[in-house]
Amino acid sequence: PEERKLSGLWRNELDSLMEISAVRDNGDFQGKYLTRVTLAGGCARASPLRGAQQQPGEGGWPTFAFTVRWDKFSNATTAFAGQCFVDTGGKETLTTMWLLREAVGSLEEDWKATRVGRNVFTRKRIRKG
Ligand code: BTN
Question: What is the ipTM of this complex?
Fold first, then answer.
């Protein structure tokens, strides 16, 4: 069925995992993000995410945005914005663009503090049995 709902477990092409729980009636949601890659190359920890989804109107696919605080291992912050699509076979895809803001030590370093990129997420099925 065409759910157009963000809740559940998702994986992107970097092999990062995101679990969105608790999508509220007003579209606010939260969850956890486990990134497979890090700026420093070290070990990542599950990091909290918070966002908002547009109320799915008639027809169109909903847009959403969320932020991830990597505060357990990094001073950086990422903001994602995207849209949810479902193809005729029922396959759900979240296409997103992100801004990754790294903490730099001074205003002179501000120019290099933000990266931009794209991530595509697909729903990760929970295996039964
Ligand atoms: C850090 O390394 O300081 C924080 C982790 C950043 C992970 C980035 S966010 C955008 C991109 N998509 C992912 O799934 N991971 C990287």
Answer: 0.98
